[in-house]
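Review box. Two proteins, two foldings.
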Amino acid sequence: MPSNPGPGVDTLGQAVIDPTENVKDLAAADRRRADDLRDADRRYLFVELRHVEEKAQMRAEHAAELRIAESRRIDAIRAVDVGAATILANQVRDAAETLRLQVETARVAQAGERDAALQPVLARLAELERRQYEQAGAYSAGVEQKGSNQWLITTYVFGALTFISIGVAIIALLVHVKV
């Protein structure tokens, strides 16, 4: 049987460590390091997740604050618009009433002017009609006959000319009064 040569030494005379034990120690250290890295990674992911959740919470709160602020801003604008619309509606109503009163006043005044201007024309027309009836009556009674045809023609021509002149006077009066 072979004899035990003794512990191995390196070139410097130092005792040599069994490479199997050295490899086992290095593998154990490597496992511990890998476990430590996995634990650190888990802790990092947990902290990162919490950080992301906090940011999401802060964004949600900020968005809610912005919605409330925007809602208040829009409500303020609507209040101003409603106030302006109310004022405008009142102004339009008042202006319409004022205009209606002015138109009515002008209508009444023009009607009075027109009636006053037409009154003499209507009086003359009534007088002419009265004279024409008198003349026609005198003609039919035989008064002032100079020739039956000539008298009749003269009466009708005079009546026609009278109506034409009255019509022209009425048109001129209406144009002047602007009815």
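Next protein.
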Amino acid sequence: MPFVGGTSSATTFTLNLQFGNKFAIALVDSGSEISFINAKFDVKHNFQMSPTPPLQVAAANGTNMLSETACLACPYSIQEHAFSSDFKILEVHGYDIILGADWIYNHSPVGLDLKTRQFSLNHYGTKIITLQDDSSLPSIYS
């Protein structure tokens, strides 16, 4: 289930994602099984959408949403490190991107230090990188 509300910065971890010259605020959310991109962000920036099998998503507020499209093999960078992910397109609130458990799994093992605001992950089996939290930046698409 994607995160849909506000909470204290001590319990959240966000990252700035760069798609070419476009920027997005992403929540790292182990409670969401799948990674999502905000439909408004996707449409505004003309990302290539592909039809996918319908996926029913139960949001934290109890509403159900349907996703039938995705941005597949979508390239981006985080703090100058290149990534590529599949993002289901959904009307998420509060963030442009939700990096879910699928993303965390693909970069395991991971380490989260909420005191130093750092997230360490396996970067495609090549090396361990450490990313700094970007929680101070609000989403402009919520």
